[in-house]
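lol forgot to send this yesterday, sorry. struct tokens for the thing we talked abt
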């Protein structure tokens, strides 16, 4: 895919043609497949976390025994992801990024800062669920080996 160009039309006025050096053509049959191939290695950029992709949504999962450790791993992972996005000529919208904390058998006195591109990420409002508060013995939640799980949505 070489020698591609684009222009923008707004209010019946069109811009000049601009050369496209990277990216995935939108609206093409191959677009979704090319996009998946383009972002396929994103999980390699964060070895201490799990990344789940769905269409153009990305979720980062980090878990651990202490919240201090989880927050440290999340911030390190987000720095790595920011570098990966920059190297791959992609951008992240900090305004559309948020996080939630789940916990098992612990109380949270949350006073942590999660950052992306030197900006604070907003926490999903409302009370994060205590995953240990269950009454059924056969509930699979008792098999969880972590105490804290922090999920970042972007």
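and heres what i got for the seq, position by position
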């Amino acid at each position: 895919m070489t020698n591609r160009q684009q222009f923008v039309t707004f209010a019946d006025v069109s811009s000049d043609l601009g050369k496209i050096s990277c990216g995935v053509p939108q609206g093409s049959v191959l677009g979704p497949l090319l996009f998946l191939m383009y972002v396929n290695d994103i999980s390699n950029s964060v070895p201490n976390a799990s990344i789940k992709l769905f269409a153009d949504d990305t979720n980062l999962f980090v878990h651990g025994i202490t919240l201090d450790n989880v927050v440290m791993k999340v911030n390190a992972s987000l720095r790595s992801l920011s570098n990966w996005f920059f190297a791959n000529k992609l951008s992240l919208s900090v305004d559309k990024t948020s996080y939630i904390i789940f916990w098992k058998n612990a109380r949270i006195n949350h006073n942590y800062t999660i950052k992306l591109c030197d900006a604070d990420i907003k926490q999903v409002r409302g009370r994060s669920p205590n995953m240990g508060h269950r009454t059924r013995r056969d509930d699979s939640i008792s098999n969880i080996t972590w105490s804290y799980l922090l999920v970042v949505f972007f």
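Residues 67-87 form the longest helix (21 residues). anyway ping me if u want another try
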